[in-house]
Amino acid sequence: MxxxxxxxxxxxxxxxxxxxxSIVISLELFRLRTGVEVEHRLRGxxxxxxxxxxxxxxxxxxxxxxxxxxxxxxxxxxxxGQLDVTTEPRRxxxxxxxxxxxxxxxxxxxxxxxxxxHKGAVVALWPLDSVRATSAGPADGKEQIxxxxxxxxxxxxxxxxxxxxxxxVSGTEQRTFQQAYRTARGALNxxxxxxxxxxxxxxxxxxxxxxxxxxxxxxxxxxxxxRTLAEVRQHDLRRSSHLLQTLRVFLDSGLSKTxxxxxxxxxxxxxxxxxxxxxxxxxxxxxxxTTIVEVGAALMLLDVxxxxxxx
Length: 311
Description:
Blueprint: H1 12-51, H2 59-67, E1 76-83, H3 91-106, E2 109-110, E3 114-118, E4 121-127, E5 131-132, H4 141-157, E6 165-169, H5 177-193, E7 200-201, H6 208-213, H7 218-239, H8 243-252, H9 257-264, H10 268-282, H11 289-308
Parallel strand pairs: 6-7
Antiparallel strand pairs: 1-4, 1-6, 2-5, 3-4
Helix pairs in contact: 3-4, 5-11, 7-11, 8-9, 8-10, 9-10
């Protein structure tokens, strides 16, 4: 709406016209916002059904995807993004804006990627052969995926109240949407647990952990890790304690109890008490170098297994 400057006030007729225009614009904005919200909800329901195991080739699911402009017959790569938002009351609004930003970015690609919120993160199933509307961007497949992932991260990080964003990418070897999502979600969780944030992450970036993420059965990893840390893990589950977290931070702090205490915001004596409790429960000697190697491997396996599980 535009009003000319001037010292003369509006006439009654002009005031009525202004009121009428305001109502019309408000209704139009409400209609547009409602349409966007419904579209996001429908895409979220479609994504949830796909990731819960519904067959993308089934007629009902295929028809729903077609109506929303998505072709599920093509191979896709999965992106999973998480915001770094320090103000908790603003988190929901920040994610809504981030979702809108990524959806707007996805609209520039054909076939159209499927973008929605899922399990507290922005998830995008991106067709591998999607072509950007503009001619810019790398031509190599892996470089193009990295370029898109970087664009998604920048779009998410640009919203108000976001201090950064981390986006993880699945590999291109996954044969199903579920496998691609599980790999990307696991890569995100492992990256965040190991201190990598405000960046893009691929399984290749995570070394052995990235390779293990592509296993189909996380139970094998948990079983192997439980040979070392089963009692400690069960203690945490039963009593809601923080022994595994303390052990992980202790290792990440270079075996310094003082630094671990600072990171955990507890007294060094508390760290010492927790470590002694771990030694008793697991029958370990944390002063032995071989034990530290064994415990570190077990923690990595747990990170991969738990990170790769749908959350």
